[in-house]
Design goal:
Family: Belongs to the thiolase-like superfamily. Beta-ketoacyl-ACP synthases family.
Number of strands: 14
Pathway: Lipid metabolism; fatty acid biosynthesis
Number of domains: 2
CATH architecture of the largest domain: 3-Layer(aba) Sandwich
Oligomer: single chain
Number of helices: 13
EC number: 2.3.1.179
Order of helices and strands: EHEEHHEHHHEHEHEHEHEHEHHEEEE
CATH class of the largest domain: Alpha Beta
Helix content: 25-40%
CATH topology of the largest domain: Peroxisomal Thiolase, Chain A, domain 1
Distance between the termini: 8 Å
Radius of gyration: 20 Å
Organism: Thermoleptolyngbya sichuanensis A183
Shape: globular
Strand content: 15-25%
Structural class: alpha/beta
Strand order of the largest sheet: 5-4-6-7-1-8-14-13-9-10
Keywords: Acyltransferase, Fatty acid biosynthesis, Fatty acid metabolism, Lipid biosynthesis, Lipid metabolism, Transferase
Largest sheet: 10 strands, mixed
Length: about 425
């Protein structure tokens, strides 16, 4: 059977793609996670000398022309280049060919928190210094957030459902969850989904720093992002994209697809509390985890690993720890939790994408990535965070958490595929 008792179709992960600060392919990204590679360093994308925060997790040696021609690349903001590139990687990984026979059954749903901010900043400068007539006719299409999904569909020929989630740092996870729902209900056979972001820009870094959200450990970037550590002082910006190919199970089996894992649960809530701060105690985050487990039909004792939101901010890490305890009870102390942001930085709307990729790979390989830089644990953060070294363990089921400004809470649940 390929449907649940409710009549909903089962959905599996058959392809993965990643453009990240620790590797520009799935293999490089996973190797980086397993080896505890740190992708954070001084900002090189712009002159950050006047900024309070001068470090970020930048994507290195990225060449969009590996995935598209030069003319097409020039007409895309970096966030869209990342999305198209990671999507083409994921399709190739899934050995999935889109053609005239299946194009209308393949959809695209890619989230982003900000969109084409670099283009906006650059064109504003053109407007102010050279006048309105000199602004690029591609300003708006390059800037708007939906273009990651739109351009990906154009590039690969996917004519099915197409959408974009813009829920701050929960956007990538919302995109995956919404794609899961589309497939469960039979409105497509496959979805290209995930998150992307390229917001390491002067205005973005200045804005987050002004809000006192960023680490200012500029002289020690390798130790700046330290989730759950007592000495954490803020998050570090990152950039990149993570993309999953989700397929309805029967469709995947009919073409002999390799299955990484099954996506089984999606929970989302709102704190309805504050524009940037989580509600004390993490009640909203706890409910998102509980809803995802309920949706999946999983009991707390069946969860072996949680890929935490784990931003390295004073408020998030202790609040998320409390939420995990509320949602999973005694199991919170028996499972493992890690924050891969310790290596990549915080990709904002792209974080749910690369972290879902990491979670799926943990399920597929029975390996969990570490939380690096965890040297002086915060007493309020007393779970097993897989400090500093990756670990081999059974991972039959796992959760991936993403929380965003505005009070958005999203949890995805994955488990090993069983026919």
């Amino acid at each position: 059977m390929t449907t649940l008792d409710s009549g909903l179709k089962r959905v599996v992960v058959t392809g993965l793609g990643a453009i990240t600060p620790i590797g520009n392919t799935l293999a490089e990204y996973w190797d980086g996670l397993m080896s505890g590679r740190n992708g954070i360093g001084p900002i090189t994308l712009f002159d950050a000398s006047r900024h309070d925060c001068r470090i970020a997790g930048e994507v290195k040696n990225f060449d969009p022309q590996l995935y598209m021609d030069r003319k097409e690349a020039k007409r895309m903001d970096r966030f869209a280049q990342f999305a198209v590139s990671a999507s083409k990687q994921a399709l190739a990984d899934a050995n999935f060919v889109i053609n005239d026979l299946n194009a209308e059954q393949v959809g695209t749903l890619i989230g982003t928190g900000i969109g084409g901010l670099k283009v906006m900043e650059d064109q504003q400068e053109v407007f102010l210094t050279r006048g309105p007539d000199r602004c690029s006719p591609f300003t708006v299409p390059m800037m708007i957030a939906n273009m990651a999904a739109g351009l990906t569909a154009i590039q690969v020929g996917a004519k099915g459902p197409n959408n974009c989630t813009v829920t701050a740092c929960a956007a990538g996870s919302n995109a995956i969850g919404d794609a899961f729902r589309i497939l469960q209900r039979g409105f497509a056979q496959a979805m290209i989904c995930g998150g992307t972001e390229a917001a390491v820009t002067p205005l973005s870094v200045a804005g987050f720093a002004s809000a006192k959200a960023l680490s200012t450990r500029n002289d020690d970037p390798l130790h700046a992002c330290r989730p759950f550590d007592k000495d954490r002082d803020g998050f570090v910006m990152g950039e990149g994209a993570g993309i999953l190919i989700l397929e309805e199970l029967e469709h995947a089996l009919s073409r002999g697809a390799r299955i990484y894992a099954e996506i089984v649960g999606y929970g989302m809530t709102c704190d309805a509390y504050h524009i940037t701060s989580p509600v004390p105690g993490g009640a909203g985050a706890a409910r998102a985890m509980q809803l995802a487990m309920k949706d999946a039909g999983l009991r707390p004792e069946e969860i072996h690993y949680i890929n935490a939101h784990g931003t390295s901010t004073p408020a998030n890490d202790s609040t998320e720890t409390a939420a995990i305890k509320t949602a999973l009870g005694d199991q919170a102390y028996k499972l493992t939790v890690s924050s891969t942001k310790s290596m990549t930085g915080h990709l904002l709307g792209g974080s749910g994408g690369i972290e879902a990729v990491a979670t799926v790979m943990a399920v597929a390989n029975n390996r969990v990535p570490p939380t690096i830089n965890l040297e002086n644990p915060d007493p309020a953060c007393d779970l097993d965070y897989v400090a500093n070294e990756s670990r081999s363990q059974t991972v039959d089921a796992a959760l991936s958490n993403s929380f965003g400004f505005g009070g958005h809470n999203v949890t995805l649940a994955f488990r090993k595929y069983q026919g």
